[in-house]
Write a structure and sequence with these properties.
The complex is a heterodimer of chains A (386) and B (306). With 386 residues, chain A is of the alpha+beta class. Helix content of chain A is 47%, strand content 13%. In chain A, helix 4 runs antiparallel to helix 6. Classes of the chains: A alpha+beta (386), B alpha+beta (306).
């Protein structure tokens, strides 16, 4: 056990830091996330620069365009990216979810076709899992995929799809057997977002921004070659995707929390804090430290098996609630000023938007209730609730 | 960064768990024979020459088993004692507690008592010991009176380090206490049936236990961070130990309370072990400084250093 970077890790961290220092454009520094993740050509250009610099797919196998380094180097990169407040690669869904799923379950042809453009930010991915009638209960998916010769024809609706409005491809779960129930009869497909019959409508959210979209599918044709895994075996593939979502994003989340806590400390020094507020601040700093150590502890599981374990659910669950508390604490320190929006708000309205956005944290990527079910059933071994 | 346990640490854990399950009330000599009392005493002084991380494994297990022995009090002080005293600890011939306030723990089991006088830590000999009825019977509190400071043990500037070590050990114990309480809760709700179903299938019952698991894993992370800081004498050791003890004590108390609730009436009885775990957790929470006092120290460190 050693909490210090090994010489190799320290060299890598220094390499990331100095590269970010030299290459991150000033206008992208202090990137606030949210809708701005999709803004303008500069984020796309930044993503291409990240690829050229060798920072996309750090832990991916070299044969698929990655650097073939261990997940801990990906983790170090994510920490430094967050600390520099650099915008993430625009292919977040591709890098964290679609890519690992294709590497693990895709055909050689799919790997050859999709992985490199994904890393290079030439093609952007989104995810089509949730539906109006299938949120936490994902097995309730009703979007139909009707086999017609060597293609599937899709009809249905997907929702909560970030990046869909700029995406080129979608990893999508549909019901290929109309007589099937629940987890059976689902198929995992790669859908071309430019195909006829695909319509994307942005959803305006609590912050006033539009990060998510609805996807309407009417008679969309998808070649059978675009099936990932087996026809009818989509549930299993989708679970691989979700494990990656909760596992590998854990580090990015903890790294972002570090930045939030650092800003909170600065705010408290600047504005002053009551003893009760100081207690709450200490609590949140402790939670962040605990989350960071827990993330590194979970790395060893990931490094042993190659697949993130269900304990990754702890990170997402605790991060989401911590981010809600931290942002609310910042509002308390700001008082009535926090009720102002840009351009009159302190820090450009940063905390006001962050606090509202944080309400989504316990809903997206598995609600806290679903994550507690996962912990209860898969980690603690309790009897199933349904 | 490598946060995995070594093979030796895993072996020690298995040995400790197995031993304490079969011998729940070992003597100090038993512990010395296992090499626990001198785990981090140098080999040239008769110890095992291991580090604090190996000792930390033992403290987590000691908490889990509610060990009734002066391992915490001795280990907090041991590295700051003269070498011949460290050798006596390793041999099982001595155990210690330092009396820092009016209430002193482990007076029923610790062989020797240290006190602070002036700028020196002394051995106090010939003092009268009085044990007081204590909530946690496995770690009774008491008072010492009279006696004579006979022998200088160390300069008193070691006291902050003694405190840091003591807090780190308490955090590790608390994690062990909480882990056992959670396991008992899980086992119970996985078997107990009401309304024709095992109660662990009800989310109202299961989710607090899932939260306990998450709380405990985060507390364990802080406890092992603190243990590592102590092991390598990192500059962050004082704040890490304060944070770890506050978090782990609070987590252990909460985890025990949820486990008691999950057990229903049986968890509220004297015959069930849960109340003993709960009382140890409360004792840890109360000792040295409350969680809010420790968080105040953390806040001072974070906000007032500029």
């Amino acid at each position: 056990m050693d909490f210090r970077d090994t010489p190799e890790e320290a060299r890598f961290r220094e390499e990331v830091r100095s590269w970010l220092e030299a290459n991150l454009p000033d206008e992208l520094r202090g990137h606030r996330g949210g809708e701005a993740r999709f803004d303008g050509p500069e984020v796309r250009a930044w993503s291409r620069a990240l690829y050229a610099g060798g920072w996309s797919g750090i832990a991916w196998p070299e044969e698929y365009g990655g650097r073939g380094l261990g997940p801990r180097f990906q983790a170090i990169y994510l920490e430094e990216e967050a600390r520099a407040e650099a915008p993430p690669h625009i292919g977040v869904i591709g890098l964290g979810m679609a890519g690992p799923t294709i590497i693990g379950r895709g055909t050689e042809a799919q790997k050859a076709r999709y992985l490199q453009p994904l890393l290079a930010a030439d093609e952007i991915w989104c995810q089509g899992f949730s539906e109006p009638g299938a949120g936490s209960d994902l097995a309730g998916v009703r979007t139909s995929a009707r086999l017609d010769g060597n293609r599937f024809v899709l009809d249905g609706q997907k929702v909560w799809s970030s990046y869909a409005h700029i995406a080129d491809f979608c990893i999508l779960l549909a019901r290929s057997d109309p007589d099937s129930q629940r987890h059976a009869g689902l198929t995992y497909l790669i859908v071309d977002m430019h195909a006829p019959g695909v319509e994307v409508r942005p959803l305006r959210q609590i912050t006033g921004e539009a990060e998510f979209n609805e996807i309407f599918l009417s008679g969309v044709e998808v070649p059978v070659d675009n099936v990932v895994g087996d026809v009818g075996g989509g549930w299993d593939v989708a679970m691989t995707t979700l494990l990656h979502e909760r596992g590998t994003l854990g580090f990015a989340l903890v790294a972002r929390l570090e930045v939030q806590v650092r800003k909170l400390l600065a705010l408290a020094v600047e504005r002053g804090a009551t003893p009760t507020q100081r207690d709450a601040i200490a609590r949140e700093w402790m939670r962040f430290q605990a989350l960071r150590v827990t993330a590194y502890r979970s790395l060893s599981a990931l490094e042993r098996t190659g697949i993130p374990g269900p304990e990754g659910s702890i990170l997402k669950l605790e991060w989401s609630e911590a981010n809600q508390r931290v942002t609310k604490l910042a509002l308390e320190l700001l008082g009535a000023d926090a009720q102002l929006l840009a351009p009159n708000a302190p820090y450009g309205g940063y905390w006001t938007i962050q606090q509202l956005r944080s309400r989504g944290n316990t809903i997206e990527a598995g609600t806290s209730e679903i994550l507690r079910n996962i912990l209860a059933e898969r980690v603690l071994g309790l009897p199933r609730s349904r | 960064m490598d946060l995995s346990f070594t093979g030796l640490q895993d072996e020690l854990r298995a040995q400790a768990r197995g031993f304490l399950e079969t011998s729940p009330e070992p003597t100090w000599a038993d512990l010395a024979e296992l090499g626990w009392t001198g785990a981090s005493v140098a080999e040239e002084h008769g110890g095992a020459g291991l580090g604090f991380l190996e000792e930390a494994v033992l403290h987590e297990e000691a908490g889990r088993a509610l060990l009734h022995a002066p391992l915490w009090s001795t280990s907090s002080l041991a590295p700051f004692l003269p070498f011949e005293d460290q050798a006596a600890i390793a041999a099982g011939d001595a155990s210690w507690v330092i009396a820092l306030g009016p209430l002193v723990p482990d007076l029923d089991t610790a062989a020797r008592v240290a006190v602070v006088g002036g700028d020196t830590v002394w051995e106090l000999e010939g003092a009268e010991r009085e044990l007081l009825a204590t909530n946690d019977e496995t770690r009774p509190l008491g008072v010492v009176s009279g006696g004579e400071a006979t022998r200088a043990l160390s300069a008193s500037d070691v006291l902050p380090s003694v405190r840091t070590r003591s807090l780190a050990i308490l955090a590790l114990e608390a994690v062990g206490v909480g882990a056992r309480a959670l396991e008992l809760g899980i086992a119970y709700v996985a078997e107990r049936e009401q309304f024709g179903r095992r109660i662990g299938s009800y989310q109202a019952v299961a989710h607090p236990l899932a939260s306990s698991h998450a709380d405990l894993e985060l507390a364990r992370s802080l406890a092992w961070w603190a243990a590592w800081c102590v092991a390598v004498d990192d500059t962050e050791a004082p704040v890490a130990a304060a944070a770890a003890k506050a978090d782990a004590a609070d987590a252990a108390v909460l985890v025990c309370e949820r486990a008691i609730q999950a057990h229903g009436g049986i968890g509220f009885t004297w015959e069930h072990v849960l109340h003993r775990l709960y009382k140890r957790a409360l004792g840890i929470q109360a000792w040295e400084a409350s969680s809010s006092q420790l968080r105040a120290e953390v806040a001072d460190h974070l906000l007032d250093t500029a």
